[in-house]
Recover the amino acids of this structure.
């Protein structure tokens, strides 16, 4: 369930490096300017971005932004290509009923997107974005979402 703007305003908003501003200030900013606010929820212990779904195949702009922020780079083991140069891929394929939801999308560069589909690799992902890759020889590799607490330190 997506929150309404009124609910978001009532919660307040945190500006990184500045602190939390009240809902009345958020509402004023939204009323005065053509403002877009992205709601990003972080796990307070791990700093990982946590929690959006659509019936469409392609993720919307907010989902793509979320995936870039959560993943930071291609999630294939050992790849460091930045997430801005990656494409979102369904962990559970859309053609097999996998939803277009952030918990089922992962950033992959074009090369590793093809590898995942054509070379016998499999991928599972936990709801908080931790990936386990299995290669064609059944060896396992783990990749993890960006820890935003470490980046802020």
């Amino acid at each position: 369930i997506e929150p309404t703007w009124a609910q978001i305003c009532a919660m307040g908003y945190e500006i990184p490096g500045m602190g939390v501003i009240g809902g009345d200030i958020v509402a004023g900013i939204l009323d005065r300017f053509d403002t877009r606010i992205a709601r990003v929820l972080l796990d307070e212990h791990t700093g990982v971005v946590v929690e959006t779904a659509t019936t469409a195949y392609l993720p919307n702009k907010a989902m793509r932004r979320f995936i870039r922020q959560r993943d930071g780079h291609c999630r294939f083991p050992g790849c460091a290509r930045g997430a801005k140069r990656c494409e979102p891929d369904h962990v559970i394929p859309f053609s097999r009923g996998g939803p277009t939801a952030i918990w089922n999308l992962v950033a992959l560069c074009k090369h590793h997107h093809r590898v995942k589909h054509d070379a016998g690799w499999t991928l599972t992902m936990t709801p908080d974005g931790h990936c386990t890759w299995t290669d064609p020889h059944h060896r396992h590799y783990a990749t993890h979402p960006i820890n935003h607490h470490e980046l802020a330190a």
